[in-house]
């Protein structure tokens, strides 16, 4: 892979990490707040269903995970396993697509 492409992946890894950090904090704070307020899972789902803001938030969360995890695993596969080349790229692209597909299915099921 070209140095430019490697630099783009490095930047995407760092940017997605920053987005994930914010998303995890918001997600956990929201859960803690809701549970301490006595809401049940059914009540939380009832309040969030159809809410465009939460749909957008969790869509961004899924997108960040779909970018971040495969790039990180790519580095691990290359450094620890010595796995390089097109097969690694295709497997990790498939993993990314799988994360995005299943994650967005969950978001749509909960919020749409």
Task: Give a brief outline of the structure.
By secondary structure, the chain is an all-alpha fold.
C-alpha geometry: elongated
Decide which structural class fits the backbone: mainly alpha
Count up the helices.
4
User: How many strands in all?
Assistant: 0
Give average pLDDT, whole number. Answer: 95
Q: Could you describe the largest sheet, including whether it forms a barrel?
A: none
What can you see in these coordinates?
This protein is an all-alpha fold. Helices cover 87% and strands 0% of the residues. The chain is built from 4 helices and no strands. The protein has helices at 3-36, 41-48, 52-80, 86-111. α1 packs across α3 (52-80) and α3 packs antiparallel against α4. The longest helix has 34 residues, at 3-36. The radius of gyration is 17 Å and the shape is elongated. The model has no long low-confidence stretch (mean pLDDT 95).
Give me some keywords for this one.
mainly alpha; 112 residues; elongated
Topology:
Elements: H1 3-36, H2 41-48, H3 52-80, H4 86-111
Helix pairs in contact: 1-3, 3-4
């Amino acid at each position: 892979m070209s140095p430019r492409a490697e630099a783009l992946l490095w930047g995407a890894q760092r940017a997605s990490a920053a987005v994930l950090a914010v998303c995890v904090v918001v997600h956990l704070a929201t859960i803690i707040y809701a549970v301490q307020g006595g809401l049940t899972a059914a009540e939380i789902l009832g309040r969030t269903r159809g809410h465009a803001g939460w749909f957008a938030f969790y869509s961004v969360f899924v997108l960040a995970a779909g970018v971040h995890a495969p790039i990180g695993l790519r580095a691990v596969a290359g450094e620890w396993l010595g796995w390089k080349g097109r097969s690694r790229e295709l497997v990790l692209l498939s993993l990314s697509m799988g994360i995005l597909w299943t994650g967005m299915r969950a978001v749509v099921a909960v919020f749409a």
